[in-house]
Recover the amino acids of this structure.
């Protein structure tokens, strides 16, 4: 592995940063709970101090109990109301996971057939020229039902009285292709699944979910978001604009996509949802196993099974999870089925899913590894443009891996080949680091402290020596 960079610059493969050594979940004593909570609180506060979110809340379930929930920043910036573990936040597409579990409950009861046509339950949705759609295809985003036409389609302000009215918004739209032959992520497909729940159970979607999912799991702070409804501890909506500034977000109405993105909850309630899944309170082990159906049509990224993304990890066993992003929120939930660990992270700030995703994996590492709870968090310092310029350059890691460190304004960034650009932070006069994972650059300079004479890149204890070529 000499002269090869260990940095993989895509979020999809971020899990590999944490998989160098085989990991076993470690039993958590009361002292370890204290260390875990203190480190987790520091991580959230650090994210707020770097102005990545207005408000942030997260939680860890481990060792058979909720080990920690916490928050940082504000749920209401104007009133300075703090974000904490009780903050109610839009969970966006994590709603799909709950809808999928509800469908599987009805499969267990013999009320839904996975391979039956959609029209068996929802007669008002027209059969398209491309062919009939099955429930299985809706669950895996392989039905061909289109997603939003554009960003504004997903930011609807119109109030829909029920799911039938919401379906009218998109039911005449053409499919994206032949059902069962392509992967097309679609929130509208999950609206149809919500209708399947209603038609097969004889209840409204919200009533069914409350009675059979939320109350069973003890998720008493979880509900469908309703226009103008007052909810205690509900967060306001914010966004990160194109200039990197935190601003108040626009208003939107979620009634057009409730089963696919219209639920509000807390970090703690999401932990309870994950616990109820691996404790088989909601569905049996056999039914959960059926959810791991992968049609192998997704071209890039993690496979999508029934209502969850699947994270293949030989070191940690089966991991399922879901992310979400919409007006006023960025979210992530991960369930480590074979480790008995659940981690949730909710931000009230749109366009920050990448930061939330990375923070979630850092919290997973905190839950898994005792050593990580004792490691100090690197702190960034303010540096002048002259100091920042000393770190700039083009670095050759071998194997056609060329990384460029550049400056934009008062910030440092790195980019390798065609991969995403990532921000770097200054730790001291000779070290810069990434906040989203455990990696840093250590530099040696000439006597005038101007020219780089040696660069060492360290990630998770692995070291490489790239050559500065410009």
């Amino acid at each position: 592995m000499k002269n090869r960079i260990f940095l993989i610059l895509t979020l999809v493969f971020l899990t590999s940063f944490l998989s160098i050594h085989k990991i076993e979940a470690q039993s958590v004593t009361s002292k370890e709970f204290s260390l875990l909570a203190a480190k987790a609180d520091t991580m959230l506060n650090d994210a707020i101090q770097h102005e990545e979110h207005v408000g942030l809340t997260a939680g860890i379930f481990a060792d058979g109990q909720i080990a920690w929930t916490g928050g940082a920043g504000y749920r209401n910036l104007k009133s300075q109301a703090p974000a904490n573990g009780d903050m109610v936040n839009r969970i966006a597409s994590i709603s799909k996971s709950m809808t999928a579990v509800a469908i599987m409950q009805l499969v267990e009861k013999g009320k839904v057939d996975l391979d039956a046509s959609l029209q068996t339950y929802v007669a008002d949705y027209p059969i398209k020229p491309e062919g009939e759609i099955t429930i299985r295809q809706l669950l895996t985003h392989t039905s061909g039902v289109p997603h939003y036409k554009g960003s504004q389609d997903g930011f609807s302000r119109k109030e829909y009285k029920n799911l039938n009215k919401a379906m009218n918004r998109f039911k005449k739209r053409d499919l994206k292709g032949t059902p069962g032959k392509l992967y097309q992520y679609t929130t509208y497909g999950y609206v149809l699944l919500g209708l399947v729940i209603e038609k097969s159970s004889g209840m409204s979607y919200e009533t069914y979910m409350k009675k059979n999912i939320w109350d069973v799991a003890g998720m008493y702070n979880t509900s469908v978001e309703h226009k103008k409804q007052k909810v205690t501890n509900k967060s306001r909506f914010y966004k990160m604009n194109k200039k990197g500034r935190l601003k108040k977000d626009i208003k939107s109405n979620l009634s057009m996509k409730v089963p696919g993105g219209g639920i509000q909850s807390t970090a703690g309630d999401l932990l309870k949802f994950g616990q109820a899944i691996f404790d088989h309170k909601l569905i049996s082990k056999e039914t959960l196993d059926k959810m791991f159906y992968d049609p192998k049509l997704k071209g890039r990224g993690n496979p999508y099974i029934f209502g969850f993304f699947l994270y293949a990890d030989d070191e940690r066993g089966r991991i399922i999870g879901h992310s979400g992003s919409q007006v006023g929120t960025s979210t992530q939930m991960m369930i480590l089925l074979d480790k008995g660990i659940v981690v949730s992270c909710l931000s009230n700030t749109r366009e920050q899913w990448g930061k939330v995703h990375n923070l979630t994996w850092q919290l997973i590492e905190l839950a898994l590894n005792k050593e990580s709870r004792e490691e100090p968090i690197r702190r960034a310092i303010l540096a002048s443009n002259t100091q920042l310029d000393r770190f700039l350059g083009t670095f050759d890691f071998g194997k056609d891996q060329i990384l460029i460190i550049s400056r934009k304004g008062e910030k440092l960034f790195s980019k390798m080949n065609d991969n995403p650009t990532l921000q770097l932070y200054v730790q001291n006069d000779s070290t810069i680091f990434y906040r989203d994972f455990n990696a840093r650059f250590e530099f040696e300079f000439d006597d005038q402290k101007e020219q780089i004479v040696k660069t060492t890149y360290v990630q998770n204890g692995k070291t490489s020596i790239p050559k500065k070529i410009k």
About this structure: Confidence is low (pLDDT under 50) at residues 1-27.
